[in-house]
Each structure stands twice: as C-alpha cells, then as structure tokens.
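Methods — Computational structure assignment.
A single polypeptide chain was analysed. Its primary sequence is given first, followed by the predicted tertiary structure written as structure tokens.
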Amino acid sequence: MNILFVVSEAVPLVKSGGLGEFAGSLPKSLGPLGANVRVMLPGHREIAAVHRRAFQEVMQGRVEIGGVPHPWRLLEADVEGIHYYLIENAYYFGSSTLYGYGDETERYIFFCLVVLEVLPGLQFAPDIIHCHDWQTALLPVLMRNSRQSGSRERTMPSILTIHNMHYQGRDEKGQFRQWLGGKYDEAWSQTGQLHTGGDTAAKNDETVSCLELGLVAASRVTTVSPSYAAEIRGEPGGAGLSPVILTRQDEVLGICNGIDTAYYDSMQDHEIVFPYKSWAGKRANKLALQRRLGLREDGAAPLFAIVSRLVRQKGLDLIIAQLSQLLSLGIQLAVIGSGEDYYQNFFRSAAVQHPESLSVHTVFDDRLAKQIYAGSDFLLMPSLYEPCGISQLIALQFRTVPVVRLTGGLKDTIRPYNPETGQGNGFGFEDYHPGQLLAAVGQALEVYHDARHWAALQHSIAAGDYGWGNSAMAYMHLYKELWSSSENQDS
C-alpha cells in the first residue's frame, strides 16, 4: 500500500514544531507494518544544504494562480530511510521562515495546485493521500474536482489530519476566486454552502478557509488525540468550525501522537552531556545543565523546564501570574522557545531579576532543548488547549515528569500520579486557573521530596511506551479500510 504524506514541514528536513515531528517520524513506524510512505513538502529555503544536496530534479512545469503562471520544480531524494519530494519555487518558498507572511494562504494554494499537477507523473502511484492541517487541506477538494477524464486522483481516498484547529488558512471568498479561477466555483459547488459557527463566521460570511473546505471534501478526518476530537465538536475547541465537524462526527477519528524513540534515546544520544539509563546519570546531566545555564548548582533543587513556543496557547499566562510564588517554593526554571514578543520580553526580564533560578533562551536550539529535557526533573505544560502535544512525550522518554493542564492530548497521555497505588506518569489539573497550576506544582514537589513516592513515580514512567506502536497500527487500520473501500469502488 502506497501512502503519500503531503505536508508543510517534516523532520529532518525542516520543522517548526509538532507537525514536523509527526510527518518525519510516523512514516518510519508505518513501513514495518506494510505501508510504503513517501513525503511531499515545499522546498523551503530553511532546508539545510546538507540535506538539499541529496535531491535531484525529476520534473518541472508551470501552474497558474491568480492569472499568473508560476514555475515549479519537483526534486526527490531518500533521507534517513524515507523518500521525500520537494516542490521548489523561489517566489513562494524562498523566505527565511516557514510561516507568518502575508501571502501564506496564496503560497499553500499554489503548493496544492502543484501537487495535483505532479501526481500523474510520479514514478510512485499513491493509494491514499494523507494531508495535514490547513496548508494542504485544499488538496482533497482539488482532487475531487479534477477535470481529467477518468482521473485516478478524482477517486483516490484522502485523509486530512488536524494538528491545530485554530490555524485555518482563512481569507475572503473573492480572494479565493481570484487565486483559483474556475476551480474555486467547482470547489464551492462540490463542498456545498458550509455552515460555520463562531464569532468570525457569524460576523463575516464572506470568508472561507482551506481547512473548512478540506474538512468537507476529505474521505476521512483525523486529529491527534481522542480528547481533542471530542473538544472540536463544540466551541471554543472547534474554533468556529464545530458545525462542520458535527456533520462528519462519525468520520472524525482521534489518534494520539507518538515520538521517534530511537531519536530521543537517553542511552544513545550524544547531543546530551552524559548519555544515561540510571537516575544517577540523569542527576549528572542536571548538574551540567545548571552549570551551562548559570543556575545555582544544586542537585537537590527541583528543576522545571518549559520547552515550547512562547504563545498564549501554551498557558504561559498562568505561569506569569504565579511566577513569584513558584520561585518562592525553591524551584529553578529553564525556558527555551521563541514566539510572541510579550512572552519573550517577560521571561527575559524575569531572568535578569532571578539569575540563579531562572534561565531563558528565546532562540530555539534542538541540542540545548534535548539537554534541558535530560537535565530537568519536571516539564511545565499548562496549555490553554493542546491537540496532542509532543513535549510531554519527549519528557517522559527522558524520565522528566510532566506537570500539565489536562486538556486535549495531555489528558490522553498523562495519568496523574496516585500515591495510594504508585501509578501514574505526571501531575495535572483541569481548570484554567493560576491557583490550580500552583496546587499541581505543590503536589509534584511533595512527591519529589518523598523518596518512596518519587521512586514509584520514576518506575511507572520507565515502564511506559511513548513511541508510535499502537498509533501507527491505528493509522494502518484506517488506511486499509479506505484502501479496501476504494478497491471495491474501482471494481
């Protein structure tokens, strides 16, 4: 069975967060289960030369968008055991960052148009197209509306995975019509008049989004945890699109993320200071981390980490509201991540005031992030909402204890520690309130200072499996279901 992932980022080529981790690691776990997975993404300027040198051109052409023809080149290469395709165009993908530009919707409409163009010419015949987030959500619509007589793309099954419902690729309908020309009217007639909710849609019914169209057109919809699949059926989790989700609620499946446990392996990872298996080895990493970050070197001081985009979604307002109280408990805090100026400036300023207990790095560094996972006792992740989350899984793999808000995938992957049974793999709270965060940290510290309970918690975490195993099998089950259905229709 041939599966083509179409996505905006994928490790090891390029990533901004969990989406890139997902697209780069899941295909490795699907191969042993019988899927031949290839990955297609834009040829971003950020892709390192060491990877780009491996690619060779296999196709080129032009695609019209907004009445203007734009050239494209298709490159391909095997990288770390996975076959990748890059769609290159300097105008759309030559910027120095992946996202955040004013032409973002236009550039990914262009990307989807080119994907549709190259599919018939690939020396690889996908049985299923697996799209990810709004950036590729328009592709199932374009596939259904392919004008080629007898086109295989018209009936090829497609899956759309939602990694974050709040990012939608939304713009005015008139702008979509300008970019897509006649294809827009076909898309709109194919998907029908969508009924959206929420303030944005209610106030302005002249907008539409790539995600909105894709939710209707895709053969199946998945998201990255069962709890998030339930949350997007209503508001505010649905971000204005819950009525669309409700029309397909029996076809929306939540499957938790996993991580590449070979890449995140504390015993084999030479990017951390002391590769380790024992808790003594973890303590050695903690002292090395404190030394590197300029924190007070103290193996007994509970060291918390924040490894995150610095944005409102990540619950940083709760931490800001309680920072003084948290530091007064004797904890240390290591922060790494970039994001909104407000949060970056706050943590930088706080680090100046508390140099021995707070370290902040607002330029993301994968190597340092791994060292923070390896050296910290706790991960702080009090998200406002969290479709699944990767950071808590990486933390568990490094035997770092998550303290989270129990929402979305955090609710599905973190089991609060129970002192009576000695079971659980972290600490959590439900209400989005600073007091609840402080209480959860207090519970964590009680266990940290109790040798018997701390050992039980460590044992419970060590027994967990944070890889793709079960989740990869769930995706394979879905692929086989769609493949079988497609084969029956073709026959």
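Note: Confidence is low (pLDDT under 50) at residues 194-204.
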